[in-house]
Design brief:
The protein folds into 2 domains: 35-64 and 346-441, Aspartate Aminotransferase, domain 1, CATH 3.90.1150.10; 70-342, Type I PLP-dependent aspartate aminotransferase-like (Major domain) (Aspartate Aminotransferase, domain 2, 3-Layer(aba) Sandwich), CATH 3.40.640. It contains 14 helices and 16 strands. The protein has helices spanning 3-13, 56-59, 68-78, 92-104, 118-135, 156-159, 165-168, 195-213, 238-249, 302-306, 327-342, 345-360, 390-399, 422-441, and strands at 35-39, 42-45, 50-53, 111-115, 143-147, 179-181, 217-222, 226-227, 233-234, 253-257, 281-284, 296-300, 369-375, 378-383, 403-404, 411-414. It starts with a helix and ends with a helix. Bound molecules: pyridoxal-5'-phosphate (PLP). Residues 117-119, 122, 151-153, 223, 228-229, 257, 259-260, 285-286 line the site of pyridoxal-5'-phosphate.
Amino acid sequence: MSNSDLRQRSLAAVWHPCTQMKQHAGDQAVAMIPIASGKGVWLYDFDGHRYLDGISSWWVNLFGHCNPRINAALREQLDQLEHVILAGCTHRPVVELSERLSALAGGKLGHCFYASDGASATEIALKMSFHYWRNRGRQDKQEFLCLSGSYHGETVGALAVTDVALFKDAYAPLIRAASTVATPDARLASDGETAVDVARRAAAALENHLEQHHHRVAALIVEPLVQCASGMAMYDPEYLRLARQLCDRYEVHLICDEIAVGCGRTGTFFAHQQAAIRPDFLCLSKGISGGYLPLSIVLTSDQVYGAFYDDRISRGFLHSHSYTGNALACRAALATLDIFADDRVIDANRLLAEQLARGLSPLADHPRVRHLRQRGMIAAFDVLNDDPGFSERFCRNALAREILLRPIGNTVYFMPPYVLSHDECEFLVAGAIAALEATLVA
Ligand SMILES: *Cc1c(COP(=O)(O)O)cnc(C)c1O
């Protein structure tokens, strides 16, 4: 098997996600990379090239490819139970995972509902919130609020609370639109304003909206601390504190979508913990299975759970997916949580994040770089340029330096696996800076 052979067959038979397939045709195309194997932070193609996975394979891989500890746990699980229906049956991995996640969330989100992907977790949280109010006799609460620039997935229901025109506009007639309120994105600070000022300004806009419409609003959904998919927009935890207070005052649920920012990505196990708040719903996916298997979880409180607990079946939450609570995926998640505990990963990441920051710091003075920013294991900067092909050209230049990075528009970002070594971190930063220069001169 060679790269070009598999590439040709893939382009003929596979409809790739989030891709205009025609961009893969012609000489100027970004070549599709056929991956033969992976080990640690490295991916290997069929022609013997390697690439450092600087984006954790779409933000899912935490502890490297083919991690020996996760592999061993999965092998063991394979010989015990691969999957069983989770309606009417249960199994050890799903029980243990639920208990451990609830403990990690401070013991107040003690009910875990399972699905297979992030968008489904979003939809479950939205449906549960809506149904909660209905069961409580508040049929008027039917609307959802999201932040401008939000991304919560791309199924028709999740697109309602996703504010990215490129993903949404074509489907507008299908979507029951939510209301959008101001983002606390710290880049919006005007001269003399701090990130906290921007957060307070955005919270004031939220207050204004809720003051007028709270009786119709079921929930506010936010991505805590970093709005990832719309370009790593980072904001101060003050916004989450104020939003929590407003949601309490106006009887509105707070949904924290930690599909991307959870699992230690921002420096704490859950991002919302940096604001010392508790959401009513917590959505997890991506990194929770270590990047191995599709798994998502919605955690919620006794209060929400209690509104569904009834003699009438119709008041229950009658939602399901065939692979709900898949045993292999849950076992991969348990092995992932074991690594967090055994290796004290949150502490170790602090040093790794500092190293990443030191490496990128020269870019703060680069004439074409703006808003160099970082929150834990996410770093990003914006590049001044008006080439609509910047992202693809940067990607090609990075691949030529053995690095896999995919800028979002003009925002270059880093979301590496947590097993990046000192040398690999330097390799990643040096390669990215060289790729940036090569992209800007061309
Ligand atoms: C990726 C992502 C989703 C959607 O998850 P999928 O598994 O891709 O459906 C939802 N919310 C956030 C914040 C995400 O980053």
